Each structure stands twice: as C-alpha cells, then as structure tokens.
Amino acid sequence: MLTPASMMPFLDPAKLLLAKTQNQTDSLAVAEEALKDGSLSVVVLEVTRPLDLREGRRLQLAARTGGTTGLCIIPEGMGSNAAETRWRATPLFDPACEDSTLMRWEIIKNKSGTTGAWHVHWDAQTHRLHVVPPVGERPGSARTPE
After folding, report:
1. Quick one: which of 29, 67, 89, 145 is 20 to 30 A from 58 by CA?
2. Measured on CA atoms in the order 33, 12, 41, 6, is the torsion positive or negative?
3. Under 8 Å CB-to-CB from 95, ≥6 apart: which residues?
4. pLDDT tens digit string along 104-116?
5. What residues contact residue 77 under an 8 Å CB cut-off, 6+ apart?
6. In sequence order, what are the beta bridge partners of 69?
7. Alpha-helical segments (H) within the chain
8. Do residues 82 and 95 make contact, with C-beta atoms less than 8 angstroms apart?
9. Integer Cα distance of 100 and 122 in angstroms
10. How far apart are CA 44 and CA 73, in angstroms?
C-alpha cells in the first residue's frame, strides 16, 4: 500500500493525492476521472481482481484524453489485455551491495516496442533512477555479442 511517508524519498508528499475507496469499482471510477482530468502527472491504481477488457480500455482512453500516465499495480497473473506495457519488478539481493533499493525491472509485454530487463536503483541524492543492464548483458561481457 502506498502511503505519503513511504513516498518521501521519491517526491514531496504535498504533491501526492491518495484516494481510498470502498471497492474496486469506485477505485476504477476515481482513477478514470483523475486520468481524464489531466491535472496530475501520474495516477497509480492498485487492483484486487482482474480488469476486464472494458475497464482496462476505459482507463487507457482516459489516460490518453488527459495526457496522464497511468500505473496499475496488479498481483502476478492478473493482467489486462488493454495494457500498453506490462512490467514485473522484483527486488535484487546482492550481499556485496549495500543498496537496499536495487531492483530488476522486466518489461514482459510491450505493444509498441521491445522487451527486456534492467537493474534499477534509486539515487536519493540526485532523485533519479539509475538503470544498468544485468551483469551478463553489459557491453564487453561474455554473453553480449560484440
């Protein structure tokens, strides 16, 4: 669950709007209106059941109308056919690295581009994500074609 305190390292909580609804139908309605409005740059929605094609398409059209990025957090295996992209984010545990924010981001569906995986970590000092290909895929590594 997203909370303002958990977002502090990434953004000013004063710029975060959280809406808690009674059920997923209400959450979808709130997300659709926020996406369509265009006054927010990102709308994050957490779902508890699979989205049907109609629900996913409505969110997609609302995001296009408002020029807003929509991010839907879903449990594994509950995708939506309307999604432009689908990502899997998993933590990376490296005993040699003291960075607790190291993650593997993998794009597993992309309607308009390629798929792949990246190691990502948040740099709190610069407030930016650093994206690094996995070790075996870095330029000059044995697995990377020259």
Report:
1. 89
2. negative
3. none
4. 889 888 888 888 8
5. none
6. 42
7. 4-7, 24-37, 53-66
8. no
9. 9
10. 7
